[in-house]
Design goal:
With about 400 residues, the protein is of the alpha+beta class. The protein has helices at about 20-25, 55, 60-65, 80-85, 90-100, 145-155, 165-175, 195-210, 250-260, 290, 295, 315-320, 335-340, 350-375, 380-385, 390-400; strands at about 30-35, 40-45, 70-80, 105-110, 120-125, 160-165, 180-185, 210-215, 230-235, 240-245, 280-285, 305-310, 325-330. Bound molecules: flavin-adenine dinucleotide and iron/sulfur cluster (3 copies).
Length: about 400
């Protein structure tokens, strides 16, 4: 009998790379394969496939529309200073995860792996929390974590699963049923570059600073709440050198913020709005100084990071209410969305085609040259902003 091999996606923009199809395939006939720029797409092994079509039915990015609407929107900060400094914004994820682990739960999220790629993994001890904390501005590989989640839930364990909205939608579709023990957390997400692109950048900075990378973070909270990273290099003599990767001074952060190096489907993201797949949504409360100046004059320090937290379901609301070390203040979705474009619309492609063409032909060196030409003296702007005293910065942000 002839097999009916399905087509998983027509256009690249139809596939977010969530891996739900790979997780559901009963024959393990699907693997993720990288395209020229390193973006991962599912590929079917026709010899293994039996044509059951479970893979096409499970695809949430193509088949499912979310219809949750925000129940409550808060501005929030964690009182746990040690956790907040390791987190990208207000440290709310760490509090949720700690709470779940203390109740015997397992937490899934994105962590750097040994090859400085990013993969989803689980943790079951609070000492491991640091692995999942902080934003990694690269697509995280889901691997078999949906399958692992299902097994854990079926055995009665509680699971907190965090990730980009498309990963949460993929998980929910894969599970196909509600579980009381599952809490899902999506992050506000403007798009993901590929691991290949990220690693080209890492090789570039290793050459530039003449050392092996021993530590890397996209957002170093020790220099305030912003998108400024840190890298530590060790040279052949064993000497270490720490470098601040200022948002305006790092070509990777420059292209990332511009939105020119994301996966193709991110420009058609269905989750860039109020209808979100997670029980809870977490993001940065950008624009807090304009939307809620009263919170800042009443003691909140924005240099430590302030989160926007949205309860999308009753389950999410209850989980948030149980957090002892987080201070929540009421806001609205409308206010939170003013300076956070991803709560209103997907990113725009801008010069993506030109930039990726340049990358294909000349690698990161070509992108670096282009960045140097484009940015000029503006590359120092993040450094200058960082040394302006907080009260002056606050006044400038609120009035300009
Ligand atoms: C690619 C990306 C784009 C983002 N874009 C925006 C934006 O436009 N606006 C905005 O307000 N916030 C954005 N964020 C979210 C923001 O940076 C924080 O992650 C979020 O506010 C949670 O902060 P936190 O302090 O509570 O926890 P943190 O400890 O900072 O965050 C940890 C959480 O982030 C998840 N995470 C980290 N990297 C990844 C990844 N590569 N893939 C999937 N999950 C990941 C972890 O699983 C964990 O749930 C983005 C994050 C990422 C990873
Ligand atoms: S399930 Fe996910 S990875 Fe598979 S085709 Fe759909 S979007 Fe792509
Ligand atoms: S049709 Fe069935 S066997 Fe074939 S790839 Fe899809 S899920 Fe796997
Ligand atoms: S922008 Fe949308 S599609 Fe792209 S990674 Fe984020 S959630 Fe997924």
């Amino acid at each position: 009998m002839e097999k009916n091999i399905p087509v998983l996606y027509q256009e690249k923009s139809d596939c977010c790379g969530c891996g739900a199809c790979l997780n559901i395939c009963p024959r393990n006939a699907i693997r993720m394969a990288a395209d020229e720029c390193g973006f991962l797409y599912p590929k079917i092994d026709v010899d293994l496939c039996v044509g059951c079509r479970k893979c096409t039915s499970v695809c949430a990015f193509q088949n499912t529309n979310e219809n949750n609407t925000p129940l409550n929107t808060y501005a929030a900060v964690s009182q746990n200073k040690e956790q907040a400094v390791k987190s990208a914004s207000g440290g709310i994820f760490a509090s949720l995860a700690e709470d779940y682990i203390n109740k015997g739960g397992i937490v899934f999220g994105a962590a750097f792996d040994e090859k400085r790629g990013v993969s989803h993994r689980s943790i079951n001890k609070t000492e491991m929390l640091y692995l999942l904390q902080g934003s990694k501005y690269v697509q995280s590989k889901i691997g078999n974590t949906y399958k692992e989640t299902k097994e854990l839930l079926n055995s009665g364990r509680k699971v907190l699963f965090s990730g980009t909205p498309c990963q949460i939608a993929g998980l929910k579709s894969y599970l196909g049923t509600e579980y009381d023990g599952l809490l899902t957390v999506d992050i506000i997400c403007h798009g993901v570059p590929s691991e290949k692109i990220f690693q080209s950048y890492l090789r570039f900075i290793e050459d530039k600073y003449e050392g092996k990378l021993t530590d890397f973070t996209f957002r170093d909270k020790n220099i305030g709440w912003g998108i400024n990273g840190k890298a530590v290099f060790e040279n052949q003599a064993g000497k270490k050198k720490k470098v601040t990767l200022w948002q305006s001074g790092s070509s990777y952060l420059f292209y990332f913020i511009k939105g020119w190096i994301y996966r193709e489907n991110c420009y058609r993201c269905k989750y860039a709005g109020a209808h979100r797949p997670g029980d809870i949504t977490l993001g940065d409360y950008w624009g807090i100084e304009k939307q809620h100046p009263e919170f800042l004059s009443d003691g909140w320090d924005e240099s430590k990071g302030i989160s926007v937290v949205i309860a999308n379901t009753e389950k999410g609301k209850v989980a948030l209410e149980g957090l002892q070390e987080v201070e929540f203040r009421q806001s609205t979705f409308k206010k939170a969305a003013v300076a956070n474009g991803q709560l209103r619309h997907p990113s725009e492609q801008g010069k993506r085609s030109e930039i990726l063409e340049l990358y294909r032909s000349g690698g990161w060196n070509a992108l670096e040259q282009m960045y140097q030409k484009k940015i000029g003296l503006k590359k120092y702007s993040s450094q200058i902003k960082a040394i302006i005293p907080q009260n002056i910065k606050r006044w400038l942000k609120a009035n300009i």
